[in-house]
Amino acid sequence: MPALLEIPVRVSGIKYDGSIADGPGMRTVVFLQGCDKRCKGCHNPETWDPKGGVAYSVQGLADEIMARSEFRRVTISGGEPLLQPEAVLALIRTLKDKGYDVCVYTGRHRSCVPQDIEDAADYLKVGEFMEELKTSVIPYMGSSNQEFIYLNEERLSGSAPCPK
Ligand code: SF4
């Protein structure tokens, strides 16, 4: 097993400080490579092939993000990030240690998100993209069936669901 920060991660692309649509504030978005959902109307089909994209180590990816993003807000998207759960967890923890605000987008249901990833992140967006429910007016949503979760607010209010 590689050391935590040497964990490999495949990346489709990175948008530095370039999105206000992927969580609160101006954010850097990391599009991880690989997705098994094949949603109709997907905007990122180039992320589907798990062998595509560019190989990084978590440390190398974190270093590049920290060198090139000014606002310290990062969304880990895809593709489906939960296909690379060890890398996602290590990246979240590395960025949080440096004071970053971190969001994870997944097409899966919340019950499928590993507890350690949920515990480490600031926000989650969960739920599959459904083209027939596509929206451009609900903040951070691709389709209206999805859910954006403010994890820190849940923790403060004590309203988080029971541990899985
Ligand atoms: S989960 Fe996201 S990246 Fe994967 S097919 Fe669906 S919309 Fe595309």
From TrEMBL:
Keyword set, alphabetical order: 4Fe-4S, Heme, Iron, Iron-sulfur, Metal-binding, Oxidoreductase, S-adenosyl-L-methionine
Entry-linked Pfam families: Fer4_12
Domain of life: Eukaryota
Catalytic activity reported: glycyl-[protein] + reduced [flavodoxin] + S-adenosyl-L-methionine = glycin-2-yl radical-[protein] + semiquinone [flavodoxin] + 5'-deoxyadenosine + L-methionine + H(+)
Domain Cytochrome c: 18-128
Family statement drawn from the similarity comment of this UniProt entry: Belongs to the organic radical-activating enzymes family.
GO MF: 4 iron, 4 sulfur cluster binding; [formate-C-acetyltransferase]-activating enzyme activity; electron transfer activity; heme binding; metal ion binding; ribonucleoside-diphosphate reductase activity, thioredoxin disulfide as acceptor
InterPro entries: Aldolase_TIM (IPR013785), Cyt_c-like_dom (IPR009056), NrdG (IPR012837), Organic_radical-activating (IPR034457), Radical_activat_CS (IPR001989), rSAM (IPR007197), rSAM_sf (IPR058240)
Identification of the protein by name: Anaerobic ribonucleoside-triphosphate reductase-activating protein
Gene3D superfamilies linked to this entry: Aldolase class I
